[in-house]
Amino acid sequence: MARAFLREPLIHFVVAGLILFGLNQLFFEQPSKVSAETIVVDQAAVVEFIQHRQNRSPEDALAQWQRLSQSAQSKVVKDFVEEEALYRKAKSFGLDEADYVIRRRMVQKMDFAAAGLTETEFTPSASAMTDYYKAHQAQFSTPAQITFTHVYYEAQAGGQTTTLELAAEHLKQLNAAKVSFSEGGQYGQRFAYHRNYVDRAEPLIVDHFGADFAARVFQLSATQDIWQGPVPSRHGIHLVLIAAVMPERVLAFSEVKTKVVMALRLAEQDKRRVAFMDALLAEYSVAIEPGLGVVQ
Amino acid sequence: MSQKINRSTPLGLKSVLPQSCLILAGLLGQQALAETEKPYSLPSTEDYPQNVYWGDTHLHTRNSADAYSLGNQNLTPADAYRFARGQETIAHNGMTVKLKRPLDFLVVSDHAEYLGGYYRYNVGDPIVTETTAGEQWSGYIAEGDPGKMMASFVNSMRDPANNYPFPEGAQRLIWDDVVRTADTFNDPGQFTAFSGYEWTSMINGNNLHRVVLYRDDFDEVSQLPPFTSQTSLDPQDLWRALAKYEATTGGQVMAIAHNGNISNGMMFPSVTVDGQPIDADYAALRARWEPIYEVTQVKGDGEAHPTLSPNDEFADFENWDADNIGRTQAKEDWMLEHEYARGALKLGLAKEAELGINPFKFGLIGSTDGHNTISTTEEDNFFGKFPESEPKPERMTNAMANDALWKNWRLVAAGYAAVWAEENTRASLFDAMKRREVYATTGSRIQVRFFGGWSFDASDIHQPDYVARGYKKGVPMGGDLTEGPESTAPTFLIAAAKDPDGANLDRVQVIKGWQDSSGALQEQVYDVAWSAERMIDAKTGKLEAVGSTVNIETATYLNTIGAADLATYWQDPNFDASERAFYYVRVLEIPRPRWTTVDAAYFGVALPDEAPRSVQDRAYTSPIWYTP
Q1: Residue B130 within a domain
Q2: Structural domain boundaries enclosing A257
Q3: Radius of gyration of chain B (CA)
Q4: Which one, A181, B274, B409, B615, has least CB within 10 Å?
Q5: Full-model pTM
Q6: How many beta-carbon pairs under 8 angstroms link A with B?
Q7: Is B186 left (phi over 0), alpha (psi -120 to 50) or beta?
Q8: Pick from A151, A157, A181: CB nearest B43
Q9: Would you say the ipTM is above 0.85?
């Protein structure tokens, strides 16, 4: 019951609103009742002081004030007056405006409040999930991948041509003998990196063989038991047996449903931030100096 | 018909074979195979790990109290995963930063003590502000002493009675958020995001930190909140908490210790934190929960120390050996063997002889321990530890933690955890770590294979299928050898290849540690493969240095020396079957400009006198142990 209550979006806004209200109380100037030269010390002021200093409810703060001894009350009043005086003087010097720490902290508080309560359970509707999934297919896809093995020939002293001829000759023999994927390892020479590459994406193939080789093998088709090549790399010459080339694939909704929920949760936070920022910016007009060369 | 198709070898293997012979040999092999049933899906016939995955098991975000205090106030775990996957990020210094090659996996391991707390407090999140700790912090701030709030992170471990830990309810809400975020970015097959945290125990300023790493998803991991050092500073209590997690959830978890170098002798101890001699229970727990050790990271390299290994000219490498993490006590020589991996591996042999269980039987990985959410390890793309040590002209002369700790030029651009696994998933990577089929590098993607067995032939390493032979006739790094055939010394296959985007290789070494018949612990470094035609000096027993192509002024180097790959067969020339031993491989690159040299050239500033100008980045494999 309580959980269902917490899930209610309206409650989120109310809670976020309350946080903002609290921030407002904390950070934005209250309408001044008296002149700038007078520091009024009344019960409301000292209770609010205790409340903020000790992070207590107004009732607790009042109770605490009433429990304090005379001398302790005098100490609180002294602290309050000193803080208030220092604060007012600092403000009159404009120290709050020039202090980037205060500025960043205020901005962070606003940002946190705007994003909403992240710990509250967030259960998007079925349609929200499918809509999000359809709109963000790249996020729920696997990149193009290849599975292949290769027989390697180090570039020979005689130059690449000689090695190429040798590899071309071996290619015929490998195919004539119907040498399989797992038997390929018995041929050619030791290769410094891997012999078999299983479900690997292009960047790794580029890293191990160079860009030309990677581009070439991703264009070849899977042929199960037919060796292809020769394909040159930055190391030497390769004969390749490609078991599978999988193009970029969008995963089915059922495979990624939990991820969709999580992504929606992050997206919801971003949305709230953006909505908050839009509403906020609507209160201001922005004037960019033409000399800055920036177009709004 | 007399083409040279086999690599020539220094071992006298017939290097020139008629190609028809090779094909014939292949066909004979095929015939042998044809006698068994051919599986339908051929790639699946190889069930050994074929891929090495690169990652960082140790990274902090604004959720860590110290990171937040020292300026990382905006970058989240989600930002950490995005950056690791190759996305651009704006660093705290305003620069755009991007990895040249994305990571395959990442553990965001924020400090468990007040996890997420400082950020949430500062934005007024009631989850934190309404806790007793939050109220106490409000008091400090009201008193005008925010430094006291920052200090409560450390004070809460020393004195939790007066620096209140978060209640379990708050811990759970925050932990749920951390674990959900990891699940969100975990992408099986493409990128692994592990759930984890750091248990930050310090006793008298001595570092006993452990990263805790889970194999599981939200359903299991969220059942119990992190175990904090506010609850206990004793690693044995951490291990019991991990046991409780497994018993409660059916999941799997491990702990990875780091920075023995600033533990002042407490990381690999002879006595427990209560001063009792470590016993078989301690040894069994440690062996069970800590299969791997983070040997290299920004706060120093911890493989070897020159005082312990005076004959190893490469032991003096990026060591931080002045004091402990709290800077409360200077280093003393007796501490070193309890701090450095090689010393600890040797101690482990002695403990095994004494207790029947080796408490220090760990594999090796590296990681960054970055606290700015940005995991970088490369000399020419190094973004420091805290925001204060991100690239800027003054970062070589300022010091860590608002000038309170060590000079930032000392930071090591390190390291990587390299994992040999079947696929890039939580389960596959975790299992590989558990069987120690992993290795460390100090920031390069050097590829290393290391197999030990009793019957390797010298020619095996030069065959195209040397890896299959390695698994078939032996064990990979992290494995065990025992019960060898009589009067035979163990044989090894070692193959190393340069980082495809990095420096050439200088040499490959085998480091052997053993306990001799008198009970004394010994070590020996063997050069086993090297580039070009260099000689071992008969007098000193040392291999001639590889030289250097580094131009310090321009911070550049050339791959005109060194080798692109080195591979060899090696047999222990001094084997005694009655003596416990371990063997691990160290691969050295040729020198390249250190990150400080890169900075000096980029910003046009002077280098601190003490800063090394160049660096030979390296890889350390997990050992293979021999037990009589």
Answers
A1: no
A2: 122-140+252-296
A3: 25
A4: B274
A5: 0.82
A6: 160
A7: beta
A8: A181
A9: no
